[in-house]
Every structure is written in C-alpha cells, then in structure tokens.
C-alpha cells in the first residue's frame, strides 16, 4: 500500500513538473529543446499522410455508399466485429420495381417488354456495383483503416512519449541552471549540483532513446506510401472493371432497345451521344437517345464487314441531315469508312438496313461509314 501511494505521489510530481515546464514554454519563460530539421520534416509528412488518408477514406466511403445511415450501420457492425448484412443495391431495387411493373402492366405489351429488358440490365448493373463495392472495400478501404487504427496510433503514442521525455529533459536543464546559480551564491552544496547533473544525464539518455524510436516509426511512413500506392492501383483496376461492365451491359441494352424501337416506330433510328471509345477507361458522358433522319434504301448495304458499301449510290435523305462533333480520332478500316479527327464537325445521316452502331458521314466531297460511338450528335 505504501509503495503504491509513493508511486502515485511520484507520478503526480512528474505530471506537475511537466505541466509547469509546458506552461512556461508557452509564455516564453523557459527554454525548449528543438528537434532537428529532418525530424521536423518527418513529423510534418506523417501529419499530412494521416490527414489526407482520413479525407480519402471518408470520401471513398461516401462514393461506395452514399446513404449516411447505411454507412453508420456498417460502421457499428464493424466495431461490434459482426458481419455486415447484405444490402440490395439501388440498381437491383430498380430492376425489381421494373420487373413487377412489367408483370402488372402486361409483359407482352411493347412497354412491358421494354421494362423487362431494362430490368434485366439494371439487375446486372446492380450486381456489378456490388462486386465493385466489395473489391474496393477489401483492397482499398481496409488498408487505409489499418494504417489509421494501427500504425498511426502507435506513432501517436510514441510521439506523446517523446514529448514527455523532452519536457523532463528541459525541466532537468532548468533545475541544473538554478542549482548552479545558487551554488555561485554559496546557498547550495556541491552535491545538489551533482544531483541535478546526474538527473540531466539520465533525462538526456531517455530523450535520445525515445527520439530514435520515434524517428524510425516516422521514417516508416515511406513504406506506408508504397503500400497505399499499390492499393490505389488496385482500386483503379476494380473501378475500371466496374465501368467496363456497366458499359457492356448498357451497350447490349441499347442495341436491344434500338432494334425493338425500329419495329415499333418504323422510319426512325435510335442513336447515341455516348462517346464510348475503344479504351474503356475514357470518360463517357451520359447516354441519350436521338432520332436521326432516314434516307432511301441503298442496294447492297450491309453491316460492316459483310459487304462493301456503294458510296456512289448514297445520297442524303430528303428529311434532312444532322451535324455531329467527332469525339475521338478514328482510322478508317477500309474504303467504305470515313476517317475522323477529334473535334471536327461532319454531316451525318442514317439509311435503312444499316447497322445501328454506324451512320453515313460526309466531310466536303468525302463520305463513308462512321461509328456512332465516336460522335456527339448536335441538335
């Protein structure tokens, strides 16, 4: 009991001494041991890494789960070390509603059939989103959380300990200075100065040891950056895969709707302003439907690769043409196609029997087939 009381009293004394030293430093009444410039740079880089990791983590969580209530629920499950229950994605829920609407409104009607097709596509989009969220959480969010909840807590603990060691060191320096001043006035015996010097040596040793431990941990931030860089690449890969899947699903749906609309509304063509270039990593604006004028039928017209297009027989439709801006460079595969340069304006129109992914393009006295996905149709 006496030992515990003495320890508590000693701890209280140390805490009080540190508090006094800290306060006097703040008011400029005490000297402070400064860390070297390299150490300060390590501290600054560590703080920046922690702050930006937190921001990136939080915003990625918002990206993967926009619903704040759902994020809170997932956070609580993780803290309780319980499995997060499976949640239906917005796309899957929309697919369910569309399928039910088609069943009730008439699955054999044009509207019902279209609802069913879109529902199937939305279901596939929802499944792709679920896979993306799962992969991104494991490969990106988890490593960021592990750093903040593991390595950073260790660094923070050692930094606090270093701060205490520095306060102890500076307090010992202050006591030695006072002891020497008192000795000069012959108010203290030499053994008081010796005691202060011994305490200073011990404090200096403990400070140096703790500074080295903290320095090693701070230098480990470089390894953290390498690990986060690898995780970032994996996140980009999973995001690229997700958007590529979405692109394929929507392109399939677009083709289905294009063929069905041609049967329902003869004489129209469903095009797209989606700049879906072959590199799937390119950013694509929102897909939109545009009705293109249709010209007279041309003998021998067939989808690309099946038969040569008789360009001499192609004439603009009587209903008119449209202007289009080229989004990407395109190299013609054969003489029936028209080479394109990004940002140029061309005249386009459709012909009956053409592949819905292609249009006839004209630039000056040149004409040929052009891919719809390389164009932005202008009103």
TrEMBL record:
Record key words, sorted: Coiled coil, Cytoplasm, SH3 domain
Residues that span the membrane, as ranges: none
Xref: PROSITE patterns: BAR, SH3
Family annotation (InterPro entries): AH/BAR_dom_sf, BAR_dom, Endophilin_B2_SH3, Endophilin_SH3RF, SH3-like_dom_sf, SH3_domain
BAR domain span: 24-266
Entry annotated with the keyword Coiled coil: yes
Domain SH3: 319-379
Gene field: SH3GLB2
Gene3D superfamilies: Arfaptin homology (AH) domain/BAR domain, SH3 Domains
Primary site of residence: cytoplasm
Cell location: Cytoplasm
Biological process per Gene Ontology, one example term: membrane organization
Classification of source organism: Eukaryota, Metazoa, Chordata, Craniata, Vertebrata
Similarity field: Belongs to the endophilin family.
The name this protein goes by in its record: Endophilin-B2
């Amino acid at each position: 009991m006496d030992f515990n009381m003495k320890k508590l009293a000693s701890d209280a004394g140390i805490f009080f001494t540190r508090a006094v030293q800290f306060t006097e430093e703040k008011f400029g009444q005490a000297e402070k041991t400064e860390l070297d410039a390299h150490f300060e740079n390590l501290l600054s880089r560590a703080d920046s890494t922690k702050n930006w990791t937190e921001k990136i983590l939080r915003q990625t969580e918002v990206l993967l789960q926009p619903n704040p209530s759902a994020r809170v629920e997932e956070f609580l499950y993780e803290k309780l070390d319980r499995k997060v229950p499976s949640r239906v994605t917005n796309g899957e829920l929309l697919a369910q509603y569309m399928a039910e609407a088609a069943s009730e409104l008439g699955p054999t009607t044009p509207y019902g059939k279209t609802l069913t097709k879109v529902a199937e596509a939305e279901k596939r989009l929802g499944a792709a989103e679920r896979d993306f969220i799962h992969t991104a959480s494991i490969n990106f969010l988890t490593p960021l959380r592990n750093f903040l909840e593991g390595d950073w807590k260790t660094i923070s603990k050692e930094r606090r300990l270093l701060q205490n060691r520095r306060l102890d060191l500076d307090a010992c320096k202050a006591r030695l200075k006072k002891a020497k001043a008192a000795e000069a006035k012959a108010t203290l015996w030499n053994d008081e100065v010796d005691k202060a010097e011994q305490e200073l040596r011990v404090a200096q040793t403990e400070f140096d040891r703790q500074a080295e431990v903290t320095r090693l941990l701070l230098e480990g931030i470089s390894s953290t950056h390498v690990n986060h860089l690898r995780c970032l690449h994996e996140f980009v890969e999973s995001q690229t895969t997700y958007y590529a899947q979405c692109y394929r699903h929507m392109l399939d749906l677009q083709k289905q709707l294009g063929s069905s609309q041609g049967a329902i509304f003869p004489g129209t063509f469903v095009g797209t302003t989606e700049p879906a270039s072959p590199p799937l990593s390119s950013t694509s604006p929102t897909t939109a439907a545009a009705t293109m004028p249709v010209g007279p039928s041309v003998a021998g017209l067939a989808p690309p690769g099946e038969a040569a297009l008789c360009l001499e027989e192609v004439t603009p439709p009587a209903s008119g043409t449209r202007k289009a801006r080229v989004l990407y460079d395109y190299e013609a595969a054969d003489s029936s196609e028209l080479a394109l340069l990004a940002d140029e304006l061309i005249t386009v129109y459709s012909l009956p029997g053409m592949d819905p992914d292609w249009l006839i393009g004209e630039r000056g006295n040149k004409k040929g087939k052009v891919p719809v996905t390389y164009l932005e149709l202008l009103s």
